[in-house]
Write a structure and sequence with these properties.
- The protein is mainly α and 104 residues long.
- It has a single domain, classed as Tetratricopeptide repeat domain (Serine Threonine Protein Phosphatase 5, Tetratricopeptide repeat, Alpha Horseshoe), CATH 1.25.40.10.
- Helix content is 64%, strand content 0%.
- It has 6 helices and no strands.
- Helix 2 runs antiparallel to helix 3 and helix 2 packs parallel to helix 4.
- It is globular.
- The model has no long low-confidence stretch (mean pLDDT 88).
Length: 104
């Protein structure tokens, strides 16, 4: 995947970071188009630059699950649950991660 303009420059030192990285938006689009392997690669690129992003962890887990990358889907779902206080969380993503890991 070619390097995006966003990736080629650093962020300004005063700003906290991108609100939504362009590569994460690309990965979301690829996942919706069932380009699961490309989506997984894009999510992983985001996670290399910005570890533990909730949306990228969930997206990577879904993409890995859809393209039968069995070790990666488990890994990303576990990572997702590790960054969230799962006791009181009822988000759909967390519920899906719990159900998936219970079956795995």
């Amino acid at each position: 995947m070619p390097q995006a303009w966003e990736d080629s420059i650093g962020k300004h030192p005063v700003t906290p970071g991108e609100v939504l990285p362009a590569k994460e938006l690309l990965a979301d689009m690829l996942l919706q188009l069932d380009e699961n392997l490309n989506a997984l690669q894009a999510y992983e690129a985001v996670l290399n630059k910005c570890p533990n992003r909730f949306n990228s962890l969930y997206g990577a887990a879904k993409a890995a699950e859809k393209c039968s990358k069995q070790q990666k889907d488990i890994y990303y779902y576990k990572q997702l649950l590790s960054i969230v206080d799962t006791g009181g969380c009822n988000r759909q993503e967390i519920t899906e991660a719990r159900k998936f890991l219970a079956k795995a």
